[in-house]
Amino acid sequence: METNTAELIDNLRRSQAENGQVEVKAAAGGFPKSVLETVSAFANGDGGTILLGLTDPAEGLQPVEGFNAQAVHDASVEAIRSKITPRPPADIHIEAVEGQHRIVRIDVLPGDPTQKPYYIEAHGMYNGSYQRVGEADIRLTKYEIDRLLENRSQPRYDEELVSEASFKDLSPTLVSAYVARLREEQPRVFAALSDREVLLQARILRIDSEGREVPTLGALLAMGSYPQAFFPQLMMSVVVLPGEELGEVTEDGRRFLDNHSCTGPIPSMLDEAMGVLVRNMRKTSTMEGLNSSGIGRVERYEYPLEAIRELLVNALMHRDYSPGARGSQVQVELYTNRLVVRSPGGIYGAVTIRDFGQPGVSSTRNSYLASILTDLPDPGTGRLIAENRASGIPTVLRALKEAGLPAPQFADRLLYVQVTLMQPPQGASSTEQKTAPEDKTQQATHSTGKHSADAVEPAGADASLDGLSERQAGIVRGLRAQGEAVSTTYIQEHWGRGASRTSITNDLRRLVEAKLIVPTAPPRSKNRKYRAA
Q1: Please, what is the Cα angle at 293 between 291 and 295, to 5 degrees?
Q2: From the CB of residue 301, how many other CB atoms can be counted at a distance below 10 Å?
Q3: CA-to-CA distance for 199 and 81, rounded, in angstroms?
Q4: C-alpha–C-alpha distance, residues 510 and 488, integer Å
Q5: What is the DSSP letter of 121?
Q6: For a 10 Å CB count at each end of the chain, is N or C smaller?
Q7: Coil, helix or strand for 313?
Q8: Helices 34-44 and 69-83: crossing angle, nearest 10°?
Q9: What Rg do the C-alpha atoms of the chain give, in angstroms?
Q10: Of the given ranges (93-102, 324-333, 482-491), which has the lowest mean pLDDT?
Q11: H or E stretch including 38?
Q12: Closest listed residue to residue 54, CA positions, set 12, 103, 5, 4
């Protein structure tokens, strides 16, 4: 909703300063050329308002003597229409304020993402494109402009050939799981092919200019034994901090309570990152079902594991993999009051933060990598790594709401996308008990070694799962990895392997009887969920 001019002026007088969405210029000598920089910045960002004919906010926003509103208005219309490319969405009009003093107001709307950057034509795209940072108009860097230009077409960096790598650099465990999935889903295409032929047909392996079979960047990231041998910074760092800000230290001078570099293919990075967060998050114990079934304490982490996993998957799948971003890793920071996930590159496509969580809203920067991850099962649980069905953010929103937590805070910059989950409210009821994580002084680590996906425990290694079907064993492993109770619907969607609701219900009944899983409510309760025993 547009703020009226009188209210804008009142707000600026109180703050005595401009801000990221309002610029004030005296324009005593006519149309200021610097207005073009501000228009470019607003159009390339979230929009904003320019007021011409008033003194600086620090001087009280007083009317400028001799200001010719009509002349400045006409010059503004001509300059903005003819000197900025493409033409920005702007409304320019004259208003009377505080009596009869006339000023020029320019409202610039956010530009079309597929048309950005908006730039001063005389300076060229790479010297005349700006963004708003606080009160200043800052020239965009080449990297930032290149990211905006990507919105006009589909990036293909994830399909680049890695000529230094070969079939031997792919994880046999992950390749086997991927090939089995393709044969199951598309038998007409893949059933009669060898594993290598399947990878060639699926374009995981491709022929380079020298006739060699080499993997793509996306394939190496998804299924490589150790992709960081070729791209050291394409990993995920997880740090646990002792306070609410970077730089705070413990009494003995430590900056981090835990510091881990998660490497290996994407499934391994996800598992490692989840492991670091699980062992460092506080847990809340809730007594449930005592009046009917005798079921007692249910433990929940301070942030829902389901929401965290979705954010980590999104960060790895949608991050920028262009050459200019390959020196940056996905960053995860666990503070005492929040969890932050930051991935290189801004939001891709015509989607904005305002669209997040809306039905059907999706924009995939790395469509090739996403297609691999949607057909790649986790060897430990059988759960597909990603869905890519515009369900990630809605899942996060739902999980946070069910946990009684605030909605996530999103920040979109051309250099990164950041998501922040806030800590739950302090204090617990009489049926809740906060449990601190394990002693972090004994778990502070910094991993620099290799992490291979081939180290995944084989399905038959756990004697407690003997006699179970593959689907039942997958449900148990999934619940153990999940760490918190989930619904039958969740189990069916993530570990059901396409089975019907009746089959999943029968599986759960048997697993409860075998004391491998525990229900959280009576059989007929709509709140009944299951967790690992």
Answers
A1: 95
A2: 20
A3: 52
A4: 14
A5: G
A6: N
A7: helix
A8: 60
A9: 28
A10: 482-491
A11: helix 34-44
A12: 103
Which is it for strands 258-262 and 416-422: parallel, antiparallel or unpaired? unpaired
Cis peptide before 117, with omega less than 30 degrees from 0?
yes
pLDDT in tens, 383-421: 899 986 767 788 899 999 998 899 999 988 889 999 999
**Tokens describing residue 314:** 């999104």
CA distance 509 to 447: 41
Q: What is the Cα–Cα distance from 236 to 234, expressed in whole angstroms?
A: 7
Question: What's the mean pLDDT in 191-195?
Answer: 94
Per DSSP, the residues of 378-432 read -TTT--BS---SS-HHHHHHHHHHHTT-PPPEEEE-SSEEEEEEEPPPS---TTE
Phi, psi dihedral angles at 45 (to 5 degrees): -120, -130
* pLDDT at 435 (0 to 100): 54
* Residue among 148, 157, 158 nearest 117 (CA): 148
pLDDT at 52: 96
Task: Give pTM, 2 decimals.
Answer: 0.73
Residue with tokens 């646990």: 240
The amino acid sitting at 317 is M
Residues near 224 by beta carbon (within 8 Å), at least 6 away in sequence: 165, 169, 170, 171, 215, 230, 264, 265
End-to-end, the C-alpha distance of the chain in Å comes to 52
CB 37 within 8 A of CB 133: no
Tell me how far apart the alpha carbons of residues 228 and 532 are, in angstroms, rounded to a whole number: 34
Mean pLDDT value across residues 421-446:
51
- Residue the block writes with tokens 């019907």: 500
pLDDT at residue 468 is higher than 90: no
Q: Is the pLDDT of residue 434 over 80?
A: no
Distance, CA of 518 to CA of 512 (rounded, Å): 6
- For 24-39, what is the mean pLDDT? 94
Residue 448: which pLDDT band, with cuts at 50, 70 and 90?
very low
Residue 327's CB: how many other CB atoms inside 10 A? 11
Mean pLDDT of 47-57: 93
- H-only helix segments in 151-265: 172-185, 187-190, 195-201, 217-223
Beta strands at 330-334 and 338-344: parallel, antiparallel or unpaired: antiparallel
Long-range contacts for 487-496 (Cβ within 8 Å, ≥24 apart)?
A: 487/528, 487/529, 487/530, 488/528, 488/529, 488/530, 490/306, 491/530, 494/381, 494/383, 495/381, 495/382, 495/383, 495/471, 496/471
The torsion angle over the Cα atoms of residues 158, 162, 166 and 172, rounded to 10 degrees, is -30
Task: Compute the distance between CA of residue 345 and CA of residue 363 in angstroms, rounded to an integer.
Answer: 14
Pairing of strands 130-133, 119-120: unpaired
How far apart are alpha carbons 53 and 103 in whole angstroms? 5
Those residues with Cβ within 8 angstroms of residue 227's Cβ, 6 or more apart along the chain or in another chain: 220, 221, 234, 263, 264, 265
Cα angle, residue 305 at apex, residues 385 and 368 outer, rounded to 5°: 20
